[in-house]
Amino acid sequence: SVDCSFSRGVCDWKQDTDDDFDWNPADRDRGDGYYMAVPAFVGHRKDMGRLKLLLTDLKPKSSYCLTFSYRLAGERVGKLRVFLANKKRAPVWEQNKGEDERWRTGKIEIFQESETTNSVTFESERGKGKTGEIGVDNVVLISGLCPAD
After folding, report:
1. Which of 112, 113, 4 has its CA nearest to residue 51?
2. Total structural domains in the chain?
3. CATH of residue 138
4. Cα distance between residue 144 and residue 109, in whole Å
5. Rg (CA), the chain
6. Cα–Cα 20 to 30 A to 67, which of 22, 84, 85, 148?
7. For 16, which DSSP code?
8. What does the record list as coiled-coil region(s) (predicted)?
9. What is the pLDDT of residues 11-26, one digit of tens each?
10. Residues with Cβ within 8 Å of residue 19, at least 6 apart in sequence
11. By CB neighbour count within 10 A (0-12 exposed, 13-18 middle, 19+ buried), where does 67 fall?
12. pLDDT by residue (tens digit) across 43-60?
């Protein structure tokens, strides 16, 4: 299992240089470390910010489960999408609003073919709102299928 929370820094995270803004570290409420966030007031509507997790040593012909915590807080804050590098340009996961300010868990199954996924990208698209933020934390990759809820 690969634990890619931002406080530990064991994973290879890269800011995309072709996007409109960067994700930035934000302190957790409880003070134990931080998460990555895009505040709602950054950039203009429809602007994108991408944070890429580089994956190494994934075995071909096997399954993995990617779990992560996410939060979309605020009115019309925007969209959060997840892309896998070897798939076409369609997101494998997308969320465009939260019912409340709470953190939720996202799950994505990654099935390796002979060509392995070498990165996962978290993309934030700026919405119309001026308050709130989009946040991501506790990104964990485990071998095998995702457990049922």
Report:
1. 4
2. 1
3. 2.60.120.200
4. 9
5. 15
6. 22
7. -
8. none
9. 788 999 999 999 998 8
10. 47, 48, 49, 50, 123
11. middle
12. 888 999 999 988 877 788
Structure tokens at 41: 């007031």
- pTM greater than 0.70 (yes/no): yes
Which single residue is written with the structure tokens 């019309």? 76
Residue 149 maps to a domain: no
Q: Give me 47's structure tokens.
A: 């602007």
Residue with tokens 């953190």: 103
pLDDT band of residue 1 (cuts 50, 70, 90) is low
Q: Which residue shows structure tokens 């406080």?
A: 7
Identify residue 24 by its one-letter amino acid code. Answer: N
Residues constituting the chain: 149
Examine the pLDDT at 32 and tell me if it is beyond 90. no
